[in-house]
Amino acid sequence: MDPERPGFADAHVHISEDGFSDRYPDVGDAEVLFGCTARESEWDAMRSCDVPGAVRFYGVHPWYADGWDDCIRGRLESILDSDPNAHVGEIGMDSKRGDVSVQRPVLDAQLDIASELHRMANIHMVGCERDVLESVRKHGRGCRAMILHSFSSESYVKPFAEAGCMFSINPRILARSETRISRLLSSIPADRLLLETDAPYVPRDFDGMRGFAERLGKASGMDAGHLMGIALENARRIADV
Ligand SMILES: [Zn+2]
User: Fold this and answer.
1) From the CA of 145, how far away is ligand 1's center (Å)?
2) How many Å lie between the centroid of ligand 1 and the Cα of residue 3?
3) Three-class DSSP category at 89
4) Is residue 58 pLDDT above 70, yes or no?
5) Would you identify the CATH topology of the domain 16-239?
6) Measured in angstroms, how far is the CA atom of residue 142 from the centroid of ligand 1?
7) CB 76 within 8 A of CB 59
8) Long-range contacts of 40-48 (CB under 8 A, 24+ apart)
9) At what angle do helices 209-220 and 224-239 cross, to 10 degrees?
10) What pLDDT does 210 receive?
């Protein structure tokens, strides 16, 4: 690793999807990549994914929650049983797409599995903060870590932090004002901060993790290298890698 180009961690990325790195110029410098899946049909690709630094997550995304059944639950449990380094995600709730009354029990069931096996959970939350908070409190207690992906709900930092969650910041946050970005970042405890790209689903002006950290640093008055450094340290600690 070039000392002038320190490595970084990406806490939410779809590494098993085609073209995930096409618009991610510095992905080769990533030391840790939390690779998420959105449905069962992606799990085989994730199992055989050989991207260096990959930490594998298996889950059913809220958009596909209506496909959840006992057979998929059994398969998820057996993958996690056979691979102690596998985790649960992408799971969650989305008030803008799908039926939240279907999504909620699917989130809870997957949190229960992650809790029971002491694994991490990677959580999608669009709206639904109260529901997700209740779910992580009730069903996430045994999780090794719970990562709130693309987090931006500043007023919920405190209760989610108390529930043991990590906060993963996505390049989409850069569409907000500097004041809001700076308020959000200063509200997140340093040992709970993560950075992510959600590649291949990156914003049009995305130019790599370093470019993102630079812009985030500028908006928040924090040093980009420091932000990437603490996010890497946090990712290594929770993933134990
Ligand atoms: Zn995602």
Assistant:
1) 17
2) 30
3) strand
4) yes
5) TIM Barrel (3.20.20)
6) 23
7) yes
8) 40/67, 40/72, 40/75, 40/76, 42/16, 42/17, 43/75, 43/79, 45/16, 45/17, 46/15, 46/16, 47/79
9) 120
10) 96
Residue 229's nearest CA partner among 216, 218, 213, 215 is 213
Task: List 34's β-bridge partners, or say none.
Answer: 55
Cα(36) to centroid of ligand 1, in Å?
A: 7
Predicted TM-score of the model (pTM): 0.96
pLDDT in tens, 151-210: 999 999 999 999 999 999 999 999 999 999 999 999 999 999 999 999 999 999 999 999
Percent of the chain with pLDDT over 70: 98
Cβ atoms 203, 176 nearer than 8 A: no
d(CA 13, ligand 1 centre) in Å: 6
**Domain ranges in the chain?**
16-239
Query: How far, in Å, from the CA of 146 to the mean position of ligand 1?
Result: 15
Q: How far is the CA of 39 from the centre of ligand 1 (A)?
A: 11
* Backbone φ, ψ for residue 236 (5° rounding): -65, -40
**Whole-number pLDDT of residue 2:** 60
**Of 138, 91, 89, 143, the residue nearest 119 (C-alpha):** 143
